[in-house]
Amino acid sequence: MGLARCPWGHSRCPGAVRAINQEWSHSHRGCWRLARADPDWASYTLGVFICLSCSGIHRNIPHVSKVKSVRLDTWEDVQVEFMASRGNAIARATFESRVPPFYYRPSASDCPLLREQWIRAKYERQEFAHPERQEPYSAGYREGFLWKRGRDNGQFLSRKFVLTEREGALKYFNRSDAKEPKAVMKIEHLNATFQPAKIGHPHGLQVTYLKDNSTRNIFVYHEDGKEMVDWFNALRAARFHYLQVAFPGASNADLVPKLSRNYLQEGYMEKTGPKQTEGFRKRWFTMDDRRLMYFKDPLDAFARGEVFIGSRESGYTVLDGLPPSTQGHHWPHGITIVTPERRFLLACETESEQRAWMEALQKVVDRPMLPQEYAVEAHFKHKP
């Protein structure tokens, strides 16, 4: 790529860098997951174009990255030449050459912590150019202290956590000198997702696992953002290595989407009971793959109830609205979930919330069921 000039021939004006940006965008669109199309900012020490959100993170590491506006700032000739000679594709080849397949690559919609630690790991610590720096999450064993929310009192207390791939489990202990763990979470049934708003801490992580085939939630955080993201990626690494053994013929592309999952939809809805004669009650709902769970409080350890959402071929449908005779709901925007056994009547406060829930539920219903999901469905049907 040659040195771009602005339409008036001035190399120092922002038009020169915009021309490089446009040329890069047209030829390398999508090279960098965090950069939106035609980003308006650039790091002139790294030679990459970035979005407004990420420019703030880059400004926090000035010893590594110095940022200018593509549209507003004055650019020196040497800076324009450097941008022309580099670009996001070259930076990616340099700084992402050894990203482990299990490491979570955030998108623009992910929480600030994941995006910041990705940028710091990539450029500041250069973990993906030097694999030996990946040991905190790739060693197969990790222990440390996290602040965990108490199941009954709601207080966050320091608890010792141990992750061991050899045992295929994550454990936590109520005391640092305890010989027996308070809980053992099998990697096979474990999920982790960042929930800063729900937990009330920018580093808040929700870990879920199955206990007697019911979902159990624990909520943790660490004051050090790197520490929390290292725990998250260590859990993903353990899941990855477990799945490699469980599905020996599967490719990385098949396994990576199964390492952790964000919830399809969360929020408050009203619901009524199975006889549909009692009043509607406000509950917090979480759509986790095919499990629709409802809680009295978003931070409850256990759900008040779980509903399996199967596929259309198995007799599941989602209907807009409620039956005409329905009474007792305060919110006007109804949803009816039809399962082979019964109908579930729900109500949303706003039309936009109803549309979001309808879309999430419809995606699940439209997706054919996997063989192992029929076993989960059978358990729900025979649940006491």
Automatic annotation (TrEMBL):
Domain of life: Eukaryota
Listed GO CC annotations: cytoplasm; plasma membrane
UniProt-listed InterPro entries: Arf-GAP_dual-PH_domain, ARFGAP/RecO, ArfGAP_dom, ArfGAP_dom_sf, PH-like_dom_sf, PH1_ADAP, PH2_ADAP, PH_domain
GO molecular function, one term: GTPase activator activity
PH domain span: 139-240, 262-366
UniProt cross-references to SMART domains, sorted A to Z: ArfGap, PH
Transit peptide listed as a keyword: no
Assigned keywords, A-Z: Metal-binding, Zinc, Zinc-finger
Keyword check for Metal-binding: yes
Domain Arf-GAP: 17-136
Entries under Gene3D superfamilies matching the protein: Arf GTPase activating protein, Pleckstrin-homology domain (PH domain)/Phosphotyrosine-binding domain (PTB)
Protein name: ArfGAP with dual PH domains 1
Protein's organism: Bos taurus (Bovine)
Taxonomic lineage: Eukaryota, Metazoa, Chordata, Craniata, Vertebrata
Gene name in the database record: ADAP1
